[in-house]
Write a structure and sequence with these properties.
The complex is a heterodimer of chains A (about 300) and B (about 400).
Chain A (H helix, E strand, L loop, with lengths): L10 H4 L1 E13 L4 H6 L19 H13 L14 E5 L5 H14 L8 H5 L3 H10 L5 E4 L5 H16 L4 E9 L15 E10 L7 E7 L18 H13 L7 E4 L5 E7 L22 E5 L1
Parallel strand pairs in A: 1-9, 2-3, 2-4
Antiparallel strand pairs in A: 1-5, 1-6, 4-5, 6-8, 7-8
Chain B lengths: L6 E9 L6 H9 L6 E2 L12 E2 L13 H6 L2 H17 L10 E6 L3 H11 L15 H9 L5 E5 L4 H15 L4 E8 L4 H9 L29 E9 H6 L6 E10 L12 H13 L9 E3 L6 H15 L7 E3 L2 H4 L6 H15 L1 E2 L15 E2 L5 E2 L4 E8 L3 E8 L2
Parallel strand pairs in B: 4-5, 4-6, 9-10, 9-14, 10-12
Antiparallel strand pairs in B: 1-7, 1-8, 2-3, 6-7, 8-15, 11-13, 14-15
Helix pairs in contact in B: 3-5, 6-12, 9-10
Classes of the chains: A alpha/beta (about 300), B alpha/beta (about 400).
Chain lengths: ~300, ~400
């Protein structure tokens, strides 16, 4: 059997790079969520339809909020965002709400089941809501949905950007940290925070100074130099990495994660569109505005 | 992106309300048979809609341990059956270790489905996140020993088209030698029926299930909930040619856009959906007049069918009266996340059999949906280019162009 690899694209073309033009992180606990629903970010506020986030999942609220903060970055000032794509990766969306939905169904029967549950707890809910609020007409889809939501979303976002020749793609990652463990009333058994990271990805630009995402498939002759984490990254892991790159502009050590099926996914800081490979960087928690993005602890 | 070698479909696996093997599904589609029945398996007496197109017991794949298969959730069984069948159909099953096979799977409510099914069996997985260590895609990669990457994509009813488009890109990039792509959904359950029922999206023609799904008909009153799945084997044309594979069609074009209007209601502005169709036709280098068949999204709702008609009017222009249109949801019901994949399969049937499956129950076409309908009976004739529209909650619009090889 001919494996077909000889017919594939040249190996250099198999590597996909995207520049992170802007980014923002949002973290909020349950007490902070009502305010965030009413005013998820700058630029919308009163103009947001009153009920648009009323039934939205918490991961949708923080995901939208992260995009609304990232979109303020000057690098996006002249961008036509309405043609961008959106890939959003929720993580175990609807776990808490399902508890109360199931209980209400048991108590009240079919009529007790909310018609808002399915549209707002399906895996496309975050991307669809962001598309609606920001009037983005490019493709919108969910990716992942479980423990691999980060890698699957970044993979999908990078491929969408590369193949569809879109001006840009929002990749929005969201999750509870630690995972929301509901009691029988749907309340968390221990404190937890809902976090999201929004990344504005564009095609690599000459002379770019900032954070670059590289997807290096196993067929590539290019390889990541340095340590590659075998454990799937969490949203918090990527938030920390991005914050680290933003705060420490001298940091050029990349962070990388293993891809299912071989190869790796890495973030690195580039200067003037080049990079120097030094190995695996150690990430630190960050909590202030810096560089191309915004880290907000609400 | 290397567009050098076209991407062909060389294998099909499916679970649908019209059977679980391609040739029987094809026969049922071309005979105009409905898969809609009164719901069985749970009490529907309190539900406004009491009908659905359900799948029968999913067969255990060949060479698979039946006892182990029985332990899987229904969604996992459906996906596994579709993948195994598709790989066997393509001739890759016994040789799958020799190539890098990836998987792109459309799923809408993966974890909700699993938690709900588990809870019904008395499980507590909903409360135990540590048990949610592996997604369906990861399970499939492990059980099938696939060595390529895997992801799930979710765009509601448009998910299957996104999966096919994504898989084609992976092949063009050389990331995989072969790719499984499609979608599965097993949402015909008590809460699914209640959720869509309370959205007032479902037909309440409970006394006549087989007549309930009637896209474009004046008497339509909502869609019929359905479940199913379809997976396809995609590979570069060069490789398929070399191994003399059976070829169903070329994945010739894909387009996608968003309404940015409402999470559940189609936009009154047809332009965003037109963009998706035009992208797909341009991607396939096809003029509207070159389209031989359109498998419409048309779910049998009052708003959606008219909205799609406006889109077809704008995109097809002067070709509108000549391009045959049908909605196979009249027979399969609306398979939700799996709809686009199941309808891609219907397009393959049309191409292979040189016959367009009809919109059954289209007795009195809505004058607001003035199209070249293939109503009630199959229409014979060559189908070289088939177009499948799939639109979804979240404002997703997608279009897929399949071309005969």
């Amino acid at each position: 059997v001919d494996s077909g690899r000889k017919q594939s694209a040249p190996v250099d073309e198999a590597v996909i790079c995207c520049d992170v033009l802007a980014h923002a992180s949002i973290n909020a606990n349950l007490d902070e969520m009502p305010n965030l629903r009413r005013r998820p970010g700058p630029g919308v506020g009163e103009s947001l339809p009153a009920n648009i986030l009323k039934h939205a999942d918490e991961q949708t609220v923080v995901g939208l909020s992260a995009v609304l903060h990232a979109v303020q970055h000057p690098a996006l000032a002249n961008s036509r965002l309405d043609e961008w794509g959106i890939v959003a990766g929720p993580c175990f969306l609807g776990r808490a709400t399902l508890v109360s939905a199931m209980r209400r169904f048991e108590e009240e029967g079919a009529w007790g089941f909310s018609p808002h549950f399915i549209p707002h707890r399906s895996q496309h809910a975050i991307s669809g809501t962001i598309s609606q609020v920001l009037k983005i007409h490019g493709p919108n889809l969910g990716a992942g949905g479980g423990p691999d939501n980060v890698v699957e979303s970044l993979l999908a976002g990078a491929v969408l950007l590369h193949a569809d020749r879109l001006p840009g793609v929002w990749v929005v990652l969201a999750a509870w940290d630690p995972e929301f463990i509901p009691d029988r009333n749907g309340c968390p058994v221990s404190p937890t925070t809902c976090g999201a990271l929004a990344l504005a990805l564009v095609a690599p630009q000459a002379g770019f100074n900032g954070i670059r995402l590289r997807i290096i498939p196993s067929i590539s002759q290019v390889s990541h130099i340095g340590k590659i984490s075998q454990r799937p990254p969490s949203v918090a892991d990527v938030q920390r990495s991005i914050a680290h790159f933003s705060m420490d502009v001298s940091s050029i050590a990349p962070v990388a994660w293993h891809l299912q099926g071989g190869g790796s996914l890495e973030f690195r800081r580039v200067e003037q569109g080049t990079h120097v490979e030094l190995g695996f960087g150690i990430c630190h928690r960050a909590s202030k505005e810096n560089g191309a993005g915004t880290e907000i602890r609400r | 992106v290397n567009r050098g070698s076209p991407v062909w479909i060389t294998g099909v696996g499916a679970v649908t309300p019209l059977s679980h093997d391609y040739s029987t599904i094809a026969d049922n589609l071309l005979q105009g048979r409905s898969g809609v029945r009164r719901v069985t398996g749970f009490d529907v007496s309190q539900h406004p809609s009491q009908i659905a197109a359900q799948i029968d017991r999913i067969p255990c794949p060949q060479d698979w341990d039946e006892a182990e298969f029985d332990t899987l959730q229904k969604l996992e069984q459906a996906a596994l059956w579709c993948c195994c069948s598709a790989l066997q159909d393509a001739g890759w099953w016994d040789r799958r270790h020799t190539v890098k096979i990836g998987i792109v799977l459309g799923l809408g409510c993966e974890w909700l489905s699993i938690w709900e099914a588990d809870a019904k069996q008395g499980g507590l997985r909903l409360y135990r996140p540590q048990e949610d260590a592996e997604s369906v895609v990861s399970t499939l990669r492990r059980k099938l020993a696939l060595t390529g990457p895997g992801i799930s994509v979710s765009a509601a009813c448009a998910s299957g088209n996104y999966a096919l488009a994504h898989a084609r890109r992976w092949l063009e990039l050389g990331w995989v030698d072969v790719c499984l792509a499609g979608a599965c959904d097993t949402s015909v359950n008590a809460m699914g029926l209640a959720g869509f029922g309370n959205l007032r999206a479902l037909s309440r023609r409970n006394e006549a299930p087989e007549a309930a799904s009637r896209p474009f008909d004046l008497a339509r009153d909502g869609f019929v909930l359905a479940e199913g799945g379809a997976m396809f084997v995609l590979e570069p044309a060069d490789m398929a040619r070399k191994r003399s594979a059976r070829v169903y069609a070329e994945v010739a074009g894909c387009g996608a856009s968003s309404d940015a209007h409402n999470m559940v209601i189609p936009s009154p502005d047809p332009e965003p959906a037109c963009v998706a169709m035009r992208q797909a036709l341009a991607d396939a280098c096809i003029d509207p007049g070159g389209v031989d068949y359109i498998n419409a999204h048309a779910t049998s709702t009052s708003v959606g069918d008219v909205a799609e008609t406006r889109v077809l009017e704008l995109v097809l222009g002067s070709a509108l009266p000549k391009v045959p249109v049908s909605s196979t949801k009249s027979m399969t019901g609306h398979c939700l996340t799996a709809a686009a994949a199941v309808e891609a399969l219907a397009c393959l049937v049309a191409i292979e059999h040189r016959a367009i499956p009809p919109t059954i129950n289209l007795d009195d076409p809505d004058p607001e949906c003035n199209l070249c309908h293939v109503a009630r009976e199959t229409r014979s004739g060559p189908v070289r280019v088939a177009v499948s529209n799939s639109f979804g909650f979240g404002g997703s619009n997608t279009c897929l162009v399949l071309r005969a090889v």
